[in-house]
Amino acid sequence: MSKALLRVESLRTHFPVRGDRRRVVRAVDDVTFEVPAGRIVGLVGESGSGKTTIGRSILRLVQATSGRVIFDGTDLLALSEREMRGFRRQLQIIFQDPFSSLNPRMTVAEIIGEALLTHDLAPGKSRRPRTAELLERVGLDAAQMDRYPHEFSGGQRQRIGIARAIAVEPQFIVADEAVSALDVSVQAQVLNLLLDLQQALGLTMLFIAHDLAVVEYLCDDVVVLYLGRVMERAPRERLYTGARHPYTKALLSAVPVPELGHIRDRMLLKGDIPSPIDPPSGCVFRTRCPYAIGDCASVVPPLVEVAPGHAKACIRDDVP
User: Fold this and answer.
1) Which DSSP symbol is given to 299?
2) How many separate helices (H) and strands (E) can be counted in the chain?
3) Can you point out the beta strands (E) in the chain?
4) For residues 102 and 112, is the Cβ–Cβ distance under 8 A?
5) Quick one: DSSP state of residue 3?
């Protein structure tokens, strides 16, 4: 495996509860994983598991409480705001909502050109040709650059967002639910575009999603989150064929099988994900786990390697 371009170590991001300073929302709680250079790592889990908060904490769009984010040898969380500006070009994001992530008062040329202007790339008359090149690279017509976002479909707007992200030639991109707001047919097109760009530009990517079928298609490695903690991480093939954590097994059992007459054995989880304000003691998954035992209430399971590159956070070794 290639060297890690990004490593997240013991990341915690807590938010104060409005009106009660003694309590906090534990959105991310002791998360560790790495993203090897040139690979796509999928970050999956239910809504409320902390996926987006991790992505934004890495980019310092929200302030982490503690931990380290090592990017190419530098701890981003230890940098001042001024020092962090020097890394902004290398770290970009594709937002989930292609509607609210684009300024409706700016043309496409201005939206993409703003990124080029901010980082002093393609100055003056060279900006429009560069913008045209970026639009064509993401499958849009360069003649559309003087239009406004409302004149495009959702899939086209997401392509504009992707063009903006790659405009500054980053090394690392966080794709935050980049296809979840799109129609299924458009999702496939955007996923193929991301894969083509990743291979052509040598990008390293953290792909945040809740759709495990999408993650299986796009990602090289997978990190499974639950209530702000890592439950399991593994290479894609190993996770999808030999998941070891009960939560991962439950998620995989819910993935539809596109075969007539094939019925997958479902592992149904009871109840909803607990509140991150008052998470369960011990293993945070124990209140919904069909294999929970008494010790699960008192022991916080460490993330232990069970095979090369494959780790799980569960105190039981006998889960079927």
Assistant:
1) -
2) 9, 12
3) 4-17, 20-36, 40-44, 66-71, 74-75, 91-94, 172-176, 204-209, 221-226, 229-235, 304-307, 310-312
4) no
5) P
How do residues 243-278 score in pLDDT, each as one tens digit? 999 999 999 988 776 666 656 677 778 888 899 999
Structure tokens at 43: 């970050």
Using alpha carbons, select from 142, 143, 138 the residue that is nearest to residue 190.
138
Contact 5, 64 (CB under 8 A): no
Token output for 208? 């945040």
Q: Which CATH architecture has domain 4-90+170-312?
A: 3-Layer(aba) Sandwich (3.40)
Looking at the DSSP bridge assignments, the partners of residue 94 are 175
Rounded Cα distance between 251 and 38, Å, is 27
| Domain assignments of the chain as residue spans, ordered by start | 4-90+170-312
What is the average pLDDT across 231-246? 95
**What pTM, to 2 d.p., does this model score?**
0.93
Closest CA to 68 of 125, 1, 13: 13
Query: What count of other Cβ atoms lies within 10 Å of the Cβ of residue 120?
Result: 8
Start-to-end C-alpha separation, the chain: 29
β pairing state of 310-312 and 304-307: antiparallel
DSSP string, 279-298: PPSSSTTTTT-TT--GGGGT
Phi, psi of 288 (to 5 degrees): -120, 0
Strands 74-75 and 66-71: antiparallel
E strands present in 81-228 = 91-94, 172-176, 204-209, 221-226
User: Which phi and psi (to 5°) does residue 134 adopt?
Assistant: -65, -40
